[in-house]
Amino acid sequence: MAKKTFEQALARLEQITAELESHELSLEKSLEKFNEGMALVNFCNSRLDEAKSQVELLLHKDGNLVGVPFTEEDGGN
Prior knowledge:
The protein is α+β, with helices and mostly antiparallel strands. The protein contains two helices and two strands; from the N terminus they run ααββ. The two termini are 36 Å apart. The mean pLDDT is 83.
């Protein structure tokens, strides 16, 4: 089986959300979908954390370019 990507996990989360919002699933099936969704959320969060740790902002300091670790405040949120 091919390794799951962030984009595939996100697409599956969107599909699960639509299925849950349809209100056509039994309680048991809804709980199964919810658990699958939570596992996908954890996977996506892990991938985002990995990506964030690799991001560096290049700043011009004393005439040199310096790599500075990315912080949440730099993200513009």
